[in-house]
Write a structure and sequence with these properties.
Largest sheet of chain D: 2 strands, antiparallel
Shape of chain D: globular
Order of helices and strands of chain C: HHH
Number of strands of chain C: 0
Helix content of chain D: 55-70%
Chains: A alpha+beta (279), B mainly alpha (196), C mainly alpha (100), D mainly alpha (571)
Bound molecules: heme-A, dinuclear copper ion, copper (II) ion
Structural class of chain C: mainly alpha
Radius of gyration of chain C: 19 Å
Largest interface: A-D, 98 and 106 residues
Number of strands of chain D: 2
Radius of gyration of chain D: 24 Å
Number of domains of chain D: 1
Strand content of chain C: under 5%
Order of helices and strands of chain D: HHHHHHHEEHHHHHHHH
Number of helices of chain C: 3
Distance between the termini of chain D: 26 Å
Oligomer: heterotetramer
CATH architecture of chain D: Up-down Bundle
Largest sheet of chain C: none
Number of helices of chain D: 15
Number of domains of chain C: 2
CATH superfamily of chain D: Cytochrome c oxidase-like, subunit I domain
Chain lengths: 279, 196, 100, 571
């Protein structure tokens, strides 16, 4: 079934620890759907043919007398219970409860806005600097970071460029400046609404680097294009182009990237970089 | 041909159409105000400091208004009972008092609103005032609707008493049900907005 | 209430007056309570209890719910159920919202 | 008696009529026009999706900007397509038109319980739809925040949103009046012998639908008022503090919650989807019983399943909100209720399917649409299941999978049922017959192209393509593999549009034809067909109001001389 769904569009990689579990439940439930549909479909066509007026001119007042349909209904109910308790609840519980808070996890803030993703790293001190709506300057400082705050001095900030290490728990605290957006990482099976006024945690652990992923795309329509952040919630006229980029590094690569970012802090803040020509 | 059960009760349900109709309508009204009460609870629990109603609002005026509405409810039901006793004069009197009390309610509300505006309290000031104005505003619209209908049956519509007293009495019962509901909503609005 | 004898109506009128007195008294009680210092939760609970009593009085006696027909009871039962859902389910959902 | 004593003018007879049949037809015509309009909006949008940023042919000049559909207008048309199809199209047609016309006839009532209120609710609907139409002409265009109108986007949107809200307030009020009317009619005006368990299923579905509208719509009205306050009085019910929109710090007091709207909206909108499907079930049941010439299988099970469905529909709404960050317990609760609610649907579909067994099936146009409905609703319903589990919804939420899911239930589902109903009852309403050949062509082409539009959506959805994308996902790499489907879907949609010409021609030709239909052309059992004049106008639907002696689907009763025994037949 999973193969079939893959052929039907489901991305062939599920590049996070939770991804395969989600694919699994999708494919299980499609089994149920397929069996019901094919079973009833076969019955349907058979019945239409057998009981068409030309072959069965006299209808039978009583019709079906057996109770097998009740068994089917009970069967559907049982399978749904199994899906709920065996799969759906545990996956959801892990998504909600296992948010990694410790020092092993990478902490990132993502602040969505019309029509970009602002990415905020705490820097070496591991603490996010203060931000405030009054300091927002769309060109220079979209998240309103208060550089005078001591924790803010080393904070790294990017637009539409999310870089993370592979095989490391990532804890993103997601919020929005203006309207509701939805943070979607299709290949990682991650999706979470970014709701203004709320800071919602999303966590995941990538299992594949961008480099590895790119190898799998060779020969497909998307060859050469890595992971993306998509916006899944209607957020205005630019909703369709609210795309960000996700790069998954190995540990060295990630460290190198962080190092590289530091140089931009000292200079004039985050102005002239970040691939925003792409959005 | 006339629609059946406008005056008499249908035997198996024991109801006439209008009464069932108004109860269903009130059911939807319960859900309408329910939506607003739900919003109130939701907003209130969502913030750390929610102002006490009394900080902005005048409890004495609202108490007075509560009394107005309670009294108008009892006079409303009395006006219906008077019709049941075939006493049209008393009906006129009680319905008239109901109208006066309802107008009294509006007058007090007018003073409450204007004094809020004078103090610079607007719906936009904070969510407490926002929900206060929305809920009481919607309630006031209901009061006005009630006044219009009661007035109609008090003056021009009262002619029906001569032609079709049974139906007229039923109409007054229906109007009464609506009016008691308006009172009932206020009974909840009063503590929720002013006292908590 | 379509076929009541005059005696019954008169009896009803007595009830109305009594209910009215009770409502007035309870209004004073609510206002009184609000001046006591019961804390937020205590105050809310008590005020809502009193309001519910008042509301029930109006509904039962002025609106004659105390002896109504079964159809209306069913309708209102459904309404009350949905009303409670509407009042509390959104709230419990948001309280359980995952937040940082 | 059907005729009134005094002569009526055209205006009182056809325009400001209080006759439920005229009002039903008014509802029907208005809503069909809106359906066509709503579909047209989508055909325009589908052009942009198939050929991004190329000028739309024929009507490009209306869109400005070199004939290309601008992205803000795309959002407008999308929001209005959803709103129009649901609130101005399907609900008024299914509930307003069919409900008004046939509920009194099927229960043997001479009219609705409150004829004036009935007219008022039509005119309220009419005004609501005029207001909605005005939206297209205000600065900034019609509402553009989706039919769901999520704030804060909707709070800060252009003026069209305010117009939308006023329109909704009118439409909601209209539905409330309509549902009170249907409920009282069914409870109070059933003819002698028409006990609850003898009601045709169609009446049951209308009855439950009315209950859903009565209790679910008012909270949306409340929410609409709150959003109007946000937009007009500057409150912040749905706006938290410290928003920065387009570089400007908003000066609102703040303290509100965007999720509050979502709760109030879905509190309506989930029951609303059953409002869309229940009347469809009702129509389908009538037609299947009639054309299999045997009683429906499991009448009681159907009734109880529908009542249960109605109740449950109030406690599943947050399955639209899993991705807002729902906690585990509440998440488990809503997933469970969502799975539970799928069971009565399975029961209903099973009953319909089993009803075929032992029948003597006639394949006329209404029956074809009814039979088409079953597997199409099956696909739509089944694809609801992965959405109902929060875990799989993580991937599928707000993708085209959702769009595919609900279009299967509403378009080849409900719309087919409505077509079936129109063909089935056309002789009753007009005394004329529709053309079978045109009807069958209409069915086969609609069936093919409906699937052509909506089946590929599942593929795009599985691939993760978001909905409401102006460019159809062109900028996203994950959409690259499935992008070619946009054109397939669009072409199907236009062909689907062309297929409707069979319907329109059929309607026009049949209406202009002679009154040749017999009183009971389908040999049906329910009492609307026992009526002798067709159609009798004015209050009073029957020469003599029939009494009812038996269940609604007494077809092929053993020992009876004909293969149908009307409900009104003694014995
Ligand atoms: C008529 C309308 C209708 C109906 C009936 C349904 C029915 C169901 N819907 Fe759907 N739904 C919508 C209209 C409808 N829905 C709309 C409009 C939206 C999107 C709104 C928006 O966001 O804009 C939506 C969105 C939606 C979501 C949110 C998705 C998301 O945004 O992420 C969910 C999630 O749980 C869901 C679930 C279900 C379920 C479990 C059912 C169940 O009731 C289905 C039960 C039915 C079955 C299980 C079928 C049984 C089948 C058989 C027995 C086999 C028969 C086979 C043959 C005959 C061959 N729906
Ligand atoms: C009842 C509801 C309903 C119905 C029937 C339809 C019908 C159709 N819908 Fe719609 N749709 C929605 C409700 C509905 N839709 C909603 C709620 C949304 C979400 C909006 C949002 O995102 O906010 C949506 C979104 C939506 C999208 C996604 C847009 C996006 O996300 O960007 C698409 C894309 O293809 C689409 C296509 C279609 C098509 C091709 C049909 C076709 O099936 C249409 C077929 C129509 C007919 C067959 C009717 C023909 C009428 C006649 C023939 C009448 C004749 C007239 C006279 C005789 C006078 N719809
Ligand atoms: Cu941001 Cu869509
Ligand atoms: Cu739903």
């Amino acid at each position: 079934m999973l193969e079939l769904l893959r052929n039907l569009g489901l991305p062939s990689v599920a590049a996070s620890t939770q991804g395969p579990a989600i694919d699994n439940i999708i494919s299980l439930i499609h089994w149920l759907m397929l069996i019901l549909f094919v079973g009833w479909g076969a019955y349907f066509i058979y019945a239409l043919n057998k009981f068409k007026a030309s072959s069965n001119p006299k209808a039978d007042y009583h019709g079906v007398k057996s109770h097998f349909s009740s068994y089917i209904e009970a069967g559907v109910a049982v399978i749904e219970v199994v899906l709920l308790f065996g799969f759906a609840f545990p996956i959801w519980a892990s998504r909600v409860n296992d948010v990694p808070k410790g020092p092993d996890a990478v902490q990132i803030r993502v602040v969505a806005q019309q029509f970009a993703w602002n990415i905020h790293y705490p820097g070496d001190d591991g603490v996010f600097g203060k931000t405030s709506a009054d300091l927002v300057d769309e060109a220079e400082n979209p998240i309103g970071l208060d550089r005078s705050d001591e924790f803010a001095k080393d904070d790294i900030f990017t637009i539409n460029q999310l870089h993370i290490p592979v095989n490391t728990p990532i804890n993103i605290s997601l919020s929005s400046k203006d309207v509701i957006h939805s943070f979607g990482l299709t290949e990682l099976r991650v999706k979470q609404d970014a709701i203004p006024g709320m800071e919602i945690p999303v966590w995941f652990e990538a299992t594949m680097t961008t480099e590895e992923f790119l190898k799998t795309t060779v020969g497909t329509a998307r060859e050469g294009q890595g992971f993306e952040i998509s916006c899944a919630q209607l957020c205005g006229l630019g909703h369709y182009r609210m795309k960000g980029f996700l790069t998954i590094h190995d540990d060295e690569g990630y460290a190198a990237w962080l190092e590289e970012q530091k140089q931009y802090i000292v200079e004039d803040d985050e102005d002239d970089w970040g691939d925003d020509e792409d959005w | 041909m006339d629609i059946p059960y406008t005056v008499k009760n249908r035997p198996d349900t024991g109801l006439y159409n209008g009464k069932l109709g108004v109860w269903l309508f009130l059911a939807s009204e319960v859900m309408l105000f329910g939506g607003l009460f739900s919003a109130y609870i939701f907003l209130r629990t969502g913030v750390d400091n929610w102002p006490m109603g009394a900080e902005y609002l005048s409890v004495p005026l609202a108490t007075l208004n509560t009394m107005f509405l309670i009294t108008s409810s009892v006079t409303m039901v009395m006006s219906w009972a008077s019709l049941k006793l075939n006493d049209f004069k008393k009906f006129k009197m009680y319905a008239g008092i109901t109208l006066l009390l309802a107008l009294g309610f509006l007058v007090v509300k007018y003073f409450e609103y204007t004094s809020k505006f004078h103090h610079g309290y607007f719906p936009s000031t904070n969510n407490f005032l926002g929900i206060y104005f929305t809920m009481t505003g919607l309630h006031v619209l209901h009061v006005i609707g009630g006044i219009v209908v009661i007035f109609f049956y008090w003056m021009p519509g009262a002619k029906m008493w001569e032609t079709d007293p049974g139906r007229f009495t039923n109409r007054i019962e229906i109007v009464g049900l609506y009016w008691h509901f308006v009172d009932l909503v206020w009974i909840f609005l009063f503590p929720v907005l002013y006292l908590l | 209430m379509a076929n009541m004898t005059p005696e019954e109506v008169k009896h009803h009128i007595k009830t109305y007056v009594m209910v009215f007195v009770a409502l007035a008294f309870l209004t004073v009680v609510t206002v009184g309570i609000s001046y006591l210092d019961l804390g937020v939760t205590g105050g809310i609970v008590l005020a809502l209890i009193v309001a519910s009593i008042k509301g029930s009085l109006v509904a039962c006696y002025f609106m004659h719910l105390i002896d109504e027909k079964i159809t209306i009871y069913w309708t209102l039962l459904a309404t009350v159920a949905m009303f409670l859902v509407l009042l509390f389910l959104p709230l419990s959902t948001s309280l359980a919202q995952t937040q940082v | 008696m059907s005729t009134d004593h005094h002569k009526e003018s055209f205006w009182t007879k056809y325009i400001f009529s209080t006759d439920h049949k005229i009002i039903g037809i008014q509802y029907g015509i208005t809503s069909l026009v809106w359906l066509l309009f709503g579909f047209t909006l989508m055909m325009i949008m589908r052009y942009q999706l198939a050929y991004p940023e190329s000028p739309v042919p024929f009507i490009g000049s209306l869109l400005g900007d070199g004939g290309i559909l601008p992205s803000e207008m795309y959002n407008s048309l999308g929001a209005m397509h959803g709103t129009i199809m649901i609130f101005l199209g399907v609900v008024p047609l299914a509930f307003g038109a069919f409900g008004n016309y046939f509920v009194p006839l099927q229960i043997g009532a001479i009219d609705m319980a409150f004829p004036k209120l009935n007219a008022a609710s039509y005119w309220m609907y009419f005004m609501g739809s005029v207001v909605m139409a005005i939206g297209f002409f205000v600065p900034g265009g019609a509402a553009n925040s989706g039919w769901t109108s999520y704030p804060p986007l909707a709070d800060v949107a252009t003026m069209g949103q305010t117009v939308w809200l006023w329109g909704m307030v009118l439409l909601i009020t209209s539905s409330l009046l309509g549902s009170v009317n249907i409920l009282v009619t069914v409870i109070q005006l059933r003819t002698e012998g028409m006990t609850w368990m003898k009601l045709p299923i169609f009446v049951w579905t209308q009855f439950i639908t009315a209950f859903l509208l009565l209790l679910a719509f008012p909270p949306l009205e409340a929410a609409g008022v709150l959003q109007l306050m946000d937009r007009l009085a500057g409150t912040s019910f749905f706006m938290p503090s410290g928003l920065v929109v387009s570089g400007e710090v908003l000066t609102n007091a703040g303290g509100g919650s965007p999720l509050l709207w979502q709760h109030l909206f879905w509190f309506l909108a989930h029951p609303e989807v059953y409002v869309l499907i229940l009347p469809a079930f009702g129509i389908i049941t009538e037609i299947i019983a009639n054309n299999t010439r045997k009683p429906i299988w499991g009448y009681k099970a159907l009734v109880y399943a529908m009542i249960f469905l109605g109740f449950m529909s109030f406690i599943v709404w947050a399955h639209h909100m899993y991705i807002t960050g729902m906690g585990t317990t509440i998440g488990a609760f809503f997933q469970t209720t969502t799975m539970i609610i799928s069971i009565p649907s399975v029961v209903i579909l099973t009953a319909l399917l089993l009803s075929l067994w032992g029948g003597s099936i006639r394949f006329n146009t209404p029956m074809l649409f009814a039979l088409g409905f079953i597997p199409m609703f099956g696909i739509g319903g089944l694809t609801g299941l992965p959405l109902g589990l929060a875990a799989s919804d993580i991937h599928l939420h707000d993708t085209y999978y959702v769009i595919g899911h609900f279009h299967y239930v509403v378009a080849p589902g409900t719309i087919f049922a409505l077509f079936a109903g129109i063909y089935y009852w056309f002789p009753k309403m007009t005394g004329k017959k529709t053309n079978e050949t045109l009807g069958k062509l209409h069915f086969f082409f609609s069936f093919i192209f409906m699937n052509g539009v909506f089946m590929p959506m599942f593929v795009q959805g599985l691939a993760g393509v978001s909905r409401r994308l102006w460019d159809g996902g062109e900028i996203y790499a994950h959409a690259a593999d499935v992008l070619y489907l946009n054109e397939v879907m669009s072409v199907s949609a236009w062909l689907l549009g062309l297929a409707q010409i069979f319907f329109i021609v059929n309607m026009i030709v049949s209406l202009r034809g002679k009154k040749t239909a017999e009183v009971n052309p389908w040999d049906a059992t329910t009492i609307e067909w026992t009526d002798t004049t067709s159609p009798p106008l004015g209050h009073g639907n029957f020469e003599t109001v029939p009494s009812v002696y038996r269940g609604p689907y007494e077809y092929s009763v053993p020992g009876a001389d004909k293969d149908f025994t009307p409900q009104s037949e003694k014995g």
